[in-house]
Design brief:
Elements: E1 22-30, E2 33-41, H1 53-63, E3 73-77, H2 83-90, E4 94-99, H3 104-113, E5 126-129, E6 145-149, H4 158-168, E7 174-180, H5 187-194, E8 199-207, E9 212-219
Parallel strand pairs: 3-4, 3-6, 4-5, 6-7
Antiparallel strand pairs: 1-2, 7-9, 8-9
Helix pairs in contact: 1-2
Keywords: Methyltransferase, S-adenosyl-L-methionine, Transferase
InterPro entries: Methyltransf_16, SAM-dependent_MTases_sf
GO molecular function, one term: methyltransferase activity
């Protein structure tokens, strides 16, 4: 089926979100591209399984600005299904998709399912494990863009994410973050307190109806 809406219920902290494992394939029409995304719902993946609406918002944002992706080196954090990074790769970016190790099989499945018939415009997306604040130093700092879609929901991870973003952006990468602004998860606190400690933060898109914001963040000069 063709679908343009994502999952929109509150993000749980509980890893046991889904008791049984099942797969759902959905075709998303985004930026003139049709992406077939498999969502592996199961107890292990939890919140990494669904396509979240904030991710689709970020896809649409770049769909209106494809020139911001073409030819760029892009890394996505907490990629989940990979819909954002895969679209970026289809639009000409050289993309690295990262998430916790348990999410990598889903990412790899979706990358394989979405290779254009003519081949990837730049290079096939890479899929690598990355735990914020732990192994980020294994990654380079020469990215053009860092993408994050609906990853701001566990307050204890906020300092770790800022630390990771600071390393990835040492050479001036720009970060785009799309978030459902959930007060119960202190999402606004991340953008008002944590991220501004190291980055200049600008709101570039606001959906009042769905309470989703997209921010653009650039490292402060002193970093």
């Amino acid at each position: 089926m063709t679908c343009t809406a994502g999952v929109d219920h509150p993000l749980p902290v509980d890893d046991g979100l889904f008791a049984e494992t099942f797969a759902q394939d959905t075709v998303y029409s985004l930026a003139g591209q049709e992406l077939k995304i498999r969502q592996l719902f199961g107890a292990q993946l939890g919140v990494a399984a669904p396509v979240w609406e904030a991710g689709l918002h970020l896809c649409r944002y770049f769909g209106e600005r494809p020139e911001e992706l073409r030819g760029k080196r892009v890394i996505e954090l907490g990629a989940g299904t990979g819909v954002v990074g895969i679209l970026a790769a289809r639009l000409g970016a050289a993309v690295t998709l990262t998430d916790l190790p348990l999410a990598l099989p889903q990412l790899q499945t979706n990358v394989s399912a979405n290779m254009p018939s003519s081949g990837w415009p730049s290079s096939p997306p890479a899929t690598l494990p990355l735990s914020w604040g732990e192994d980020h130093m294994k990654f380079p700092s020469d990215w053009d863009l860092v993408l994050c879609a609906d990853v701001i929901y566990l307050p204890e991870t906020y300092p770790l994410l800022v630390e990771t973003l600071t390393h990835l952006c040492k050479n001036g990468a720009v970060v785009y973050l799309s978030s459902k602004m959930r007060k119960e998860h202190r999402t606004p606190d991340f953008y008002e307190e944590h991220l501004p400690s190291r980055f200049n933060v600008e709101l570039v898109h606001r959906d009042d109806k769905q309470n989703i914001n997209i921010y653009r963040a650039c490292p402060r000069a002193e970093q």
